[in-house]
Specification:
Immunoglobulin-like, 711 residues, 21 helices, four-stranded antiparallel sheet, alpha+beta, disordered N terminus
Length: 711
């Protein structure tokens, strides 16, 4: 969140705006008691964020609960919080912190003495919660609120089995930064004590009950900023710098007015890029709700039509970058905008910005597409923030030159190097465009772009890029290169090193750094690494089956003819069938909500599931049920599902997606839930988090909870 505050500060510095106002408390609390547990729910107004329970020694003010307990009542474990907080590394405090957006729920369980259980009378406890919130610009002082709750002791019969309550309320082990097992430590009140105070705080390592907003989101934002700066070097954009300087030199006599105009110029560029995207998203959101917007983005991300369209667009732009033809906006539109820019004033500045956007379209179009598509994973706000970050970075140099026109003399002159930048971008667009074809290929099981074919194309593309950088490959608009510069040599070395890194992937190497972009290993026709190890074949079948086929109706898991688990693991792809098998063999369930087009899912499988300890825990102790929410396989009519809103779900992916939302109230990917044989969560679910030790602790805590309940 500190990064978000810093980004907002940077944007305010660029555009010279700011505001200070009295702010009402953006957090409202609801306190309820259910049996032997207290539930504290916070509703948080956007765009505020509230810190989690920490604790943070020397860091921010964590949310802290204090309970005043009567005789015979003590805390049963630590505070549970859901959804799991978004985790970020704060450079200022030098530690990892967590925070909540929109809402947060905290649960505290209590133990009762035998005397209170025998009496069976309600017990009143008092509590206090202290919290702090921040937005992108500032933080409010810490605030606290008192509350009173009435708890009901269990009946004597239930009291004898208090330790066998659903393990979803147990505190699972968390991973500290060094990967050691840690647990929240609560201060228990002894029966002999009078009204006493117990401060409760603890840290969880769960990766998320809502959408993962931390690493993946900020990675996309940073990438968008870098693309925004890179767009300046394209031949469509760079020549606009002298035009900008000459335009603002006209009003350089009045410095205050000139800087105001320059600020408005930057804001106009950002608005022209961001507002159309925001309008489309928000209209669909407010008209049809977030589910409609999520469905639109899910359709964009997984349906064959937009993916093939995006693939063709990328190929066309790549050909244009190579010099086959020039893509430009209609000259009439550009000329009309350019003529209105001569009128002066704010209108002239706005049309100057519009001219820049239109003229630069042929180079920024594919970049904008790349940036947006990466952020449209069922999200509402991410595409807007992504486009805002891209446009702010893109507008920054023009705003600076509008502020200080004299800086033009320090710029390098445009020339053949700009066409070289354009060609390099063409190779990159060529490689990135394959991802769209790959997503369609996986979700519809066409078998056109298996992993080795995909990697082979990348090897050829980047090998040719290396030759181009060395001057061995020349395009129509390239200038003559008498010698190879040091910069091009270093870029060529990096490119060829990347090609060498790719080659082992042709024979089964995991290529973890690229796991989010490559098709899964199960799509390979021949996996040398697996074959030499006596492991899995390309079809995903293990050398030694971990499933008892005699307990599976039909002898094989449904849909296993076209769906496979990574690393030779075996499991199910139908929830009911998997649960039935789990009850038959007496094992807990590892429920994996995943997708063919899910980049984070592939990264988890390549970087976390590949760990031997993780694989052993999954293979020996769990029944794996993988539910693909974007698979386009249409099922027989007998398997169709009608959702509460009256829609009939016919494909495997839509049925699984509806099940995830209806059962768990979330559509994030990946999403991992550990269940007992009755389908109840054992511990708090987990989503995208590349911490291997944390994932091991997650699996072990679920196994412990299952065994504890089975006693």
């Amino acid at each position: 969140m500190r990064f978000r505050i810093a980004l907002a500060t940077l944007l305010l510095g660029i555009f010279g705006t700011g505001a200070h106002a009295q702010v009402e408390q953006p957090v409202s609390w609801r306190f309820t008691a259910t049996g032997q547990q207290a539930e504290m729910t916070a509703d948080i107004d956007m765009p505020w964020h509230m810190y989690d329970i920490g604790p943070y020694d020397g860091g921010p003010n964590a949310t802290t609960f204090t309970f005043t307990l009567p005789n015979g009542v003590s805390l049963d474990g630590g505070i549970q919080q859901s959804p799991a907080p978004t985790r970020v590394h704060d450079e200022i405090f030098g530690m990892e912190i967590g925070y909540f957006a929109r809402s947060a729920k905290f649960v505290q369980r209590f133990k009762f003495s035998p005397q209170l259980i025998a009496a069976g009378k309600p017990v009143t406890i008092k509590g206090n919660v202290e919290w702090q919130v921040c937005d992108d610009e500032s933080c409010l002082p810490p605030t606290d609120e008192d509350f009173t709750l009435t708890l009901t002791p269990p009946t004597p019969a239930a009291g004898e089995a208090l330790d066998t309550l659903p393990a979803a309320l147990d505190q699972p082990a968390a991973a500290d930064p060094e990967g050691k097992m840690v647990r929240d430590e609560a201060i228990f009140v002894t029966p002999e004590a009078t009204a006493d105070t117990a401060a409760v705080s603890g840290e969880t390592s769960f990766a998320g009950l809502e959408r993962n907003e931390s690493k993946s989101f900020w990675t996309i934002i940073i990438e968008a900023i870098l693309w925004g700066f890179a767009a300046l070097l394209t031949p469509c954009v760079f020549p606009m710098v002298p035009m900008t300087v000459s335009f603002f030199l006209k009003g350089s006599d009045n410095k205050a007015k000139g800087r105001f105009m320059a600020t408005f110029y930057g804001i106009s560029i950002v608005a022209l890029y961001t507002l159309p995207i925001a309008a489309i998203i928000l209209i669909t959101y407010f008209v049809g709700g977030d589910s409609v917007t999520a469905d639109i983005f899910n359709w964009l991300a997984t349906h064959w039509l937009p993916n093939i369209l995006f693939f063709l667009i990328f190929m066309i732009f790549a050909a244009s970058f190579f010099g086959a033809f020039e893509i430009t906006m209609p000259s009439k539109l550009v000329n009309r905008s350019d003529s209105k820019a001569d009128k002066g004033g704010l209108v002239g500045v706005f049309f100057m910005a519009l001219t820049l956007v239109l003229v630069s379209f042929s180079c920024t179009g594919p970049i904008v597409g790349t940036v947006l598509v990466k952020s449209t994973q069922g999200a509402i706000w991410e595409p807007i923030f992504t486009m805002l970050a891209f446009s702010a970075a893109f507008a920054l140099p023009f705003t600076i030159f509008a502020f200080f026109p004299s800086l033009l003399k320090n710029l390098p002159k445009s020339g053949g190097w700009l066409n070289s930048v354009k060609v390099v971008l063409g190779f990159i667009e060529l490689a990135l465009g394959l991802k769209f074809l790959s997503v369609a290929d996986q979700t519809y099981h066409w078998g056109l772009l298996d992993r080795e074919v995909y990697i082979a194309l990348w090897v050829v593309i980047f090998f040719l890029l290396g030759l181009y950088l060395l001057g061995k490959l020349k395009f129509a608009h390239d200038s003559d290169t008498k010698y190879v510069s040091v910069k091009r040599l270093f870029l060529a070395i990096i490119t060829f090193a990347f090609v060498v890194y790719l080659i082992p992937g042709m024979f089964g190497a995991p290529l973890k750094a690229l796991s989010g972009y490559l098709p899964p290993l199960s799509t390979m026709d021949f996996n040398l690494s697996a074959s030499s190890a006596g492991g899995v074949s390309a079809s995903g079948g293990g050398a030694v089956s971990s499933l008892d086929r005699s307990k599976i109706e039909g002898g094989a898991p449904k849909y296993s003819d076209f769906l496979h688990l990574p690393h030779g693991l075996e499991g199910f792809f139908d929830y009911e069938q998997g649960m039935e098998y789990a009850r038959a063999v007496g094992k807990p369930v590892f429920l994996d909500f995943t997708g063919h087009g899910c980049v984070n899912c592939r990264e988890m499988e390549a970087n976390v599931w590949s760990d031997p300890t993780v694989q052993k825990l999954l293979r020996d102790n769990y029944v794996i049920i993988a539910l693909y929410v974007d698979d386009k396989k249409q099922l027989p009519e007998s398997d169709w599902v009608t959702t509460p809103d009256g829609k009939v779900r016919k494909t495997l992916g839509k049925i699984n997606a509806a099940f995830q939302i209806e059962r768990f109230g979330i559509n994030a990917l990946p999403y991992y839930v550990l269940l007992n044989n009755d389908g109840k969560p054992l511990v708090t679910p987990r989503s995208y988090d590349l911490n291997v030790n944390g994932f091991i602790n997650f699996l072990e805590s679920g196994l412990q909870a299952y065994r504890r309940n089975a006693r």
